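Try it yourself: sequence plus uridine-5'-diphosphate, in.
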Amino acid sequence: MELRTDVNSVTNWNAPLVWEGTFDPVVIDAIYKKMDPRVAVVVFAVGKYTRFLKGFLESGEKHFLVDFRVTYYIFTDNKNAVPNIQMGKGRKISVIDIPSAKRWQDVVLGRMRWATITIDKQIRTEADYLFMMDIDSVFHNRFGAESLSRLSAVLHRGYYKNTKRDNFPYERRPQSKAYIPPGEGDYYYTAAVWGGYLEDMYKLVRYCYMQSEEDAKNKIEAVWQEESHLNKYLLYNKPTKVLSPEYLWSDYDQVPADIKVVRISQLVKNYAEVRPNGGH
Ligand code: UDP
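Structure, out:
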């Protein structure tokens, strides 16, 4: 296999930085398959977002950790809208009822609360790894065991070429718990795909929940909700693997030459139409 040299394949704290061409898919799947881990995928489909379930799940069955044990935990306010999908062997769907919300910000931040409660109550005994993912996206290519580690975070497609950390959209108001001072930062990570060992993910999900509660008490909401808290945590607790933006691209953006493979892409959506309180 020819290894590519046009991208960094290691971070400055020596964690792998995963790009197509920096790993052998067959070898890495075989290594992890020996442990046969149980992988939980936590997704939310509240209000009109149930329309995204079919495309997400069907494409996930084609590309996400194929031949591994996977359970999709679908948190929804409308379980009748969960489609019937042909699931691979060892793979299933578990539906969790949650209430509707009036503001999209409440859905987005509420994810941290519901995930914390449900990991505690149920998922902890059912999974070894856990991924948090946005539902409004589709898998297009392999997303395999190369993504697994104690804590794996994905570079946000909008900022990975930007080496000026002061341009990252971190929370800059010292009043917020997510505050990152100027001059600090490694990368800007997306909160639309992140994963790791169950207990490490639990700690981080709970951290985002607690920090946002603290903010709410102080009448402030971090600029990018849980993504801001996630970035703060990962600055001081470095991820053990960093995944390139191949692991979350967007249909809004052209695919540049260094992205050889788009593994997941976010769909173009009409925000005003799908969100309960519209707009960005
Ligand atoms: N979400 C949802 N219902 C809503 C708003 C958000 O289920 O009314 C969930 C859904 O899983 C979505 C995620 O929260 O993928 C993130 O929200 P959104 O996609 O609106 O955020 P964006 O990435 O567009 O900023």
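One thing you can check immediately is this: Residues 43-47, 49, 104, 107-108, 134-136, 192, 275-276 surround uridine-5'-diphosphate (CB under 6 Å).
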